[in-house]
Each structure stands twice: as structure tokens, then as C-alpha cells.
Amino acid sequence: MSRACQTVVCKLDEMQDPGSRGFVLSLNEQLYDVFIVRQGQQVFSYLNSCPHTGGPLDWVPDQFLSLEKNYIQCATHNALFRFNDGYCVAGPCAGTRLTAVPVVIESGEIIILHGNLHADN
Ligand code: FES
Question: pTM value?
């Protein structure tokens, strides 16, 4: 369901813990590739664009995490990013960050707030 500046993407209990899922949002005739990471009762969302090359982080749909599921991992050159702020702790783009997308949980539903995505255009 999509409202003015927010989109319900799924329910929290539909995600593994820790786990990740990718979504494509269609906003103002543009597509935005985003992903969500769940850790306990928290979720974090980022654009699916690696700061190293600008390409997507996942080779396999919905798989954005390292083997140990303690970092977001880019599948191309294995950069590792923290869940909570998208900071790159290792890899060719160490010291950079993923682009955060505001996300909230309301009544068990994960909602992406995409007002900032509109503002970027
Ligand atoms: S494209 Fe992500 S680490 Fe190189």
C-alpha cells in the first residue's frame, strides 16, 4: 500500500532476524532500489547502491548480509557496512556510507518514508 510519502513494504514478522529484503519503490515514475535489514525489533533501510561503484549490493535477491549476519555485505567486492548507520568498516570503500532511507515500524508493519527520495529529484 502506498500513501502520499510512505510505503508499507512488509510486516516485521515476515523478515528473518537478523535478515534482509530488497524492494523496488515506484515513485513519481522513477524506480528506487532499496533494502531493509532487521535486527531484533529494529529495522534499517538504505538505497541498494554501493558507494564503491554505484552498483547493487546483492547478487542473490534479498541477500544483503555477511555469512555471520553481523554486517551488510556488498557481493561485488565484499565491502562490509554496519547495520545501524551504513558506515563501511572494511573493503574498497572503507570510511564511506550507504545512503540511508528513513524507515519506521508501526503496528508491526515496516514503512519506508520516502519524502527525501522525492526531494533528491
Ligand atoms: S561494488 Fe561494492 S565493494 Fe565494490
Answer: 0.92
